[in-house]
Amino acid sequence: QVQLTESGGGLVQPGASLRLSCTASGETSATNTMAWFRQAPGKEREFVVASRSRGGATSYEDSVKGRFTVSRDNAKNTLYLQMNMLKPEDTALYYCAYKGQQVILSALSYPESYVYWGQGTQVTVSS
Questions:
Q1: pLDDT by residue (tens digit) across 10-39?
Q2: Which letter does DSSP use for residue 100 in this model?
């Protein structure tokens, strides 16, 4: 089992920044894929970004490109999401996801590619 602990959410004004963190613990694997998804009220869960531990491959959803940056500290089993220029439409519950394997590039954006999920951290962007 792998446990995921997210943090860093909050209430901010449009244009502000936040950094989310997700730390994996338990039966983690050095080879893994971690991702952020988000879900707004009344909407389906949406892919945000994914990162593979090997090779540094990342994939971003189009609406966050240029504003969000993913990074990871493999020694700490932690994935970060730096979110800049936040917009009201970024408001959602942000979930961290994990799989202890290399997910193929074409499958990075699919929730079913991941095995473990965190409880989510709320991000609210409002003036």
A1: 999 999 999 999 999 999 999 999 999 999
A2: S
